[in-house]
Amino acid sequence: MKNRYERQMALPEIGIEGQARLAGARALIVGVGGLGCPIALYLAAAGIGALRLVDDDTVSASNLQRQVLYTEAEVGAPKAVCAARHLRDLRGDLDVEIYTERLTEANADRLVSGCDLVLDGTDSYASRYLLNSTCARLRVPFIYGAVRGLEGQVSVFHAGDTPRDYCELYPPEEGWADIPAEKAVLGMTAGVVGNVQAAEAVKLLAGFGQPLIGRLWTIDLGTMQTHILNF
Q: Are strands 26-30 and 50-54 parallel, antiparallel or unpaired?
C-alpha cells in the first residue's frame, strides 16, 4: 500500500523524522465525547502510535449530534469500547488502551504516567483541575479544550514553560461553569475545537510550529471571529 502518510510527510515541518516521532508517541484522551471523538479520530489518522482512552460513560442518542465516532446501534454501549473499535477499523496497527473508568485522584497518576501528552475531552472544573495538577507534577503537556454553544477555546499548559496554569487562569469563581448534559452546543463547535487540540498535539509530538503554550485561542462560530490571548 502506498504510504498513507505521504501527504503529511511532504510537509517540511513533519517529514520522515516528525512522522517517526508521531509513530513512537502515546497520548491520553480523557473523555471520548464531543471533543474526544475528533481528537482521537484525527490523531489516529495522523499516525500516532498509541492512544489511551478514558471514559466511564455510555453512548446516548443525544450524543450522536456531535460525537462522531458512534452510531445508533451503539446507544447504551461503553464509549471507550466503541471508540476503540472504530479507531482500530481505521488503523489496524493502532495501539488503543481502554479504561472504562472515571478520572479520580486515586487513578490520575496511573492514567497519565507513560503518556507523552494529555488531551482534555472533559466538561468539568474538577476533572480539568485534577488533570492540570497531575500533568504539572509529572511534567506532561496538558492540552485544554472547551466548548459552549457556538464558542470554543484551546490552550496548552506545560510545567516550566507556561506562565500560568489552568487553575490560575480559571479559578472557580471566574471561569466557565460546569456544562450540564442539556446545555446547548453546536456539534461543529466541538469538531473545530477537537481538531485544534489534535493539531496542537501533532505540533508538540512532531516538534514543529508554535504551540499554544501561554496563549489561549478562542473562536465564536456565530461571527467566525478568532482571538489569541497571551497570559
A: parallel
